[in-house]
Amino acid sequence: MLRKSLIINPTDTVAMVLEDALKGDTIQTPQGQTVTLLSDVEFAHKVSILDQKKGNPVIKYGEEIGYLLEDTPAGSWIHTHNMDCDRGTK
Amino acid sequence: METTFMGYRRPDHTVGVRNYLAIIPSVFCANTTVEKIASQIPGSVPMPHVVGCAQVGFDLELTARTLKSMACHPNVGAVLIIGLGCERFNPQELLDAVRETQKPVAMFIIQNEGGTSATIRRAVEAGKEMKATLDQMKREPCPLSALMVATKCGGTDATSGLAANPAVGCAMDRLVAAGGSAILSECNELLGTEDYLARRAVSPEVARKVYDAIYGIEDVLRSGLDPTLPANRNFLISRGNFDGGVSSIVEKALGGVHKSGTSPIVDVIEYATRPELDKHGLFLMDYESHDGEVVTGMIGCGAQLVAFTTGRGNPTGHPIAPVIKITGNSRTFHSMEENFDFDASSIISEGRPVDEVGHQLLDLIVRVASGELTSAERFGGTELFCVGRRHGYRRKTREELWAGHSCPL
């Protein structure tokens, strides 16, 4: 089913789901693109809206919040298992 | 919008939103005595802590500054100081500071009074007289420009950055526009936002102070990392933040700065240190630590109230300042409703305009300033009173701090 989601800044590479969503559910971007979730995603967690490569920046609020540790096709749940951020830890 | 609140005018021209008799130990050795005195004076506020001795340098300076700023705070109408007699922090320094504010104050030193019982007896007698005087005082209409609100997040999830913090930011913009002040701090959670914040500084020198603060905090944090420990000992972000969908400190920071609104940053101020008298507006306080130390430092800067956002839920309070609990998470609001004062979740669930919700929040802030009790006050929460600490760290120069960073200034 279609789930509520939010993209904060037009340059963002991720959307947030505004309700708990299941694998196979969809979200829609403001441009009308439909993204199918590749796994269950909890409320307020991030989903990649583009096919991305390992090392690419993750953009939210229009700013870089970290980088990808693996290739993440559109619809991937993005969190600490597949992104990292060096700031404040090194 | 309300343009005044009902506050207590102090002899030093500050304005309180509460009128407490505070009972403050100059050292932790006096804590039990302080608690026993407070138990015999209904309505008084004991402020036990864990510091006051075996400290040197900036760490002892932070203790001195914090205890003085609590005792001199406008929400405190009168003070009992309880010392031991041999502590590193001299209780006379605390007494002298309070005397300058011209509010009622008395000091009792346990080693001079002849032990716990005699100290309690004399302090209770003096305290009861002070309390009777405070109970006669009346609130008077005061302008919003006399208000300073500390902003803080704790137990953050992604809704804090989406709804609660933008609502607080909007309320702070309105407060600043009315001549009042707001404080942003917890610089450990501003890493990665320094360029954005520096662009909001009123002058190049204040912009440089923004970089000093954030690079300085990063240096403090880096000095505490230990690669021989398990990797998660070196995380600067809590488990609950991760569970809530926040994946990095920069993501958390970008959501966190929303609560400062959009006003220019008029100055970067130090821990528990009041801004210059003629300065009003948005301040950045240079400090990092957990909620308690940061909130206490901002109250020490003169904030009479705290706007505290939490997506995960948080029951904490401060002994001398109301802490207004705000959430953007409707699920958390409904599961912990007794711990909240304000629900901003309609920004997410109904798409309600942030401006409308922020306006409503400022109305609540004004009502609380005028005496309406917060949830944390009803529960008697005091755990946010924590004195800032800085062990074994020498504050570095700008040149040292900026080395290795690509600061554009």
From TrEMBL, chain A:
It comes from the Bacteria. GO terms for biological process: D-galacturonate catabolic process. CDD domains: SAF_AH_GD. Keywords: Hydrolase, Lyase. Pfam families: SAF. InterPro entries: SAF, SAF_UxaA/GarD, UxaA_altronate/galactarate_dh. Residues 12-84 form the SAF domain. One of its GO terms (molecular function) is hydrolase activity. PANTHER family: ALTRONATE DEHYDRATASE, ALTRONATE/GALACTARATE DEHYDRATASE. This is UxaA family hydrolase. It comes from Flintibacter hominis.
Automatic annotation (TrEMBL), chain B:
It holds the Pfam family GD_AH_second. GO terms for molecular function: hydrolase activity; lyase activity. GO terms for biological process: D-galacturonate catabolic process. Belongs to the UxaA family. Residues 144-385 form the D-galactarate/Altronate dehydratase C-terminal domain. Residues 7-132 form the D-galactarate/Altronate dehydratase second domain. The lineage of its organism: Bacteria, Bacillati, Bacillota, Clostridia, Eubacteriales. This is UxaA family hydrolase. It comes from the Bacteria. Transmembrane segments: none annotated. Keywords: Hydrolase, Lyase.
